[in-house]
């Protein structure tokens, strides 16, 4: 069995944290396990990484807020993450991930309003069509980041965020016109 480094970024269902699980296979003594995270906006932080464990990072550990300050939500966007053990040239793994916790929280809130709306059938159906479009853009953004298409990932995320803001601003889509024009 050879040493193979790998990790998974797992959803913590919390805008304040980023979870990274080590799923590596080791047949050597682990020396200097380090994770380097490039945060959207360009800041890079290098942190100790606990092998064979689930590591959780927040705004303080990522250097976005001072120690002792109130934690702030981590930014959505593409994170470039590299896990390394010594010697670095031999043992490292890199992944790009599109973090979508904040937009997902906004999407979830809009979705929950859908059932509470006092709308007729076609209007409610239009809202579902719009939310599905937004959801697919978010998923497309994640897929693009996973495949190193960073510009596409950012473009899809921005479009989904604008559509979601418009949806919320329009009282969650209570117009029905798009559904009636396109599907009736």
Low-confidence stretches: 175-180
User: Total number of β-strand segments?
Assistant: 7
Order of helices and strands: EEEEEEEHHHH
Number of helices: 4
The overall pLDDT average reads: 88
Question: Main beta sheet: strand number and arrangement?
Answer: 4 strands, antiparallel
CATH topology of the largest domain, what is it called? Immunoglobulin-like
Q: What structural class do helix, strand and pairing data support?
A: alpha+beta
Strand order of the largest sheet: 4-3-6-7
Instruction: Name the CATH class of the largest domain.
Output: Mainly Beta
Distance between the termini: 60 Å
Shape: elongated
Sheet-strand content, in percent, reads 15-25%
Q: What does the radius of gyration come to?
A: 20 Å
Helix content: 25-40%
Counted up, domains total 2
Q: What is the CATH architecture annotation of the largest domain? A: Sandwich
Notes on the protein architecture:
The protein is α+β, with helices and mostly antiparallel strands. It has four helices and seven strands. β1 (7-10) and β2 (17-22) form a beta hairpin. α2 (121-146) runs antiparallel to α3. The chain starts with 6 loop residues before the first strand and ends with a helix. Mean pLDDT is 88; it is low at 175-180.
């Amino acid at each position: 069995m050879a040493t193979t480094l790998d990790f998974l970024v797992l959803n913590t269902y919390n805008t304040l944290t980023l979870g990274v699980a080590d799923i590596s296979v080791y047949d050597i003594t682990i020396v200097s396990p380090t994770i380097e995270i490039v945060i959207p906006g360009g800041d890079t932080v290098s942190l100790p990484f606990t092998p064979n464990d689930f590591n959780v990072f927040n705004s303080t550990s990522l250097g976005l807020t001072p120690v002792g300050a109130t934690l702030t939500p981590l930014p959505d966007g593409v994170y470039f993450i590299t896990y390394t053990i010594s010697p670095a040239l031999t043992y490292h793994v890199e992944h790009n991930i599109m973090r979508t916790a904040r937009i997902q929280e906004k999407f979830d809130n809009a979705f929950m309003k859908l059932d509470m709306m006092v709308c007729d059938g076609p209007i409610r159906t239009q809202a579902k069509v719009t939310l599905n479009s937004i959801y697919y853009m978010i998923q497309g953004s994640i897929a693009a980041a996973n495949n190193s298409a960073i510009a596409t990932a950012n473009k899809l995320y921005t479009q989904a965020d604008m559509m979601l803001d418009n949806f919320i601003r329009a009282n969650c889509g209570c117009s029905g016109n798009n559904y009636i024009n396109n599907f009736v």
